[in-house]
Design goal:
Layout (H helix, E strand, L loop, with lengths): L6 E5 L2 E2 L5 E5 L2 E2 L5 E5 L2 E2 L5 E5 L2 E2 L5 E5 L2 E2 L5 E5 L2 E2 L5 E5 L2 E2 L5 E5 L2 E2 L5 E5 L2 E2 L5 E5 L2 E2 L5 E5 L2 E2 L5 E5 L2 E2 L5 E5 L1
Parallel strand pairs: 1-3, 2-4, 3-5, 4-6, 5-7, 6-8, 7-9, 8-10, 9-11, 10-12, 11-13, 12-14, 13-15, 14-16, 15-17, 16-18, 17-19, 18-20, 19-21, 20-22, 21-23, 22-24, 23-25
Length: 180
């Protein structure tokens, strides 16, 4: 019932998983139904895909693309340069971004999300709690389901919301907005 072998095209490639494929230079596709292409990539997980330069997709259905990206969570996706998606369905894109919670999402540059379904986007934003959202520049969402937006805004409690320029929401369900 179909081709079950592995196939390599290029130089110094290794396709050892069932129906795995490599193309390019020095790639490894060791997961069943995996695909590695480009230069120095590793598709290790079942059905994983690694493409670009020195990317790794190590878990089932994970996808890494770009340069030095790592998709290590189940169904995780990392793209860009030096991005990491380390938990179930995590998505990290951009430049030095880290998605470290289940179903978390980061995008931009130097952004981090560490909570379950946390979302960080922009430049040096951090979403550190479950269902938190940080967007803009230098924003930090530190409470559960908290939201920050703007520049240098911070939340430190659950359900808090800070927006604008240099605003801080410190109490449960608090709201701060404006300019410094």
């Amino acid at each position: 019932s179909g081709f079950k072998g592995s196939f390599s095209v290029g130089t110094n490639n290794r396709a050892s998983g069932t129906a795995s494929l490599t193309n390019g230079l020095a790639n490894t596709a060791s997961g069943d139904y995996s695909h590695a292409e480009g230069y120095g990539n590793k598709a290790i997980g079942y059905g994983s895909h690694a493409e670009g330069r020195y990317t790794q997709a190590t878990n089932t259905s994970s996808h890494a693309e770009g340069c030095f990206t790592y998709a290590t969570g189940y169904a995780a996706h990392a793209e860009g340069q030096s991005t990491h998606a380390t938990y179930f369905a995590a998505h990290s894109e951009g430049y030095y971004t880290y998605a470290n919670g289940n179903a978390s999402h980061t995008e931009g540059a130097y952004t981090h999300s560490t909570g379950y379904t946390a979302h960080a986007e922009g430049y040096q934003t951090h979403s550190n709690s479950n269902a938190s959202h940080a967007e803009g520049q230098f924003t930090h969402a530190n409470g559960q389901a908290s939201h920050t937006e703007g520049r240098n805004t911070h939340t430190y409690a659950s359900y808090a919301h800070a927006e604008g320029l240099a605003t801080f929401a410190n109490g449960y369900s608090s709201h701060a907005e404006g300019g410094g």
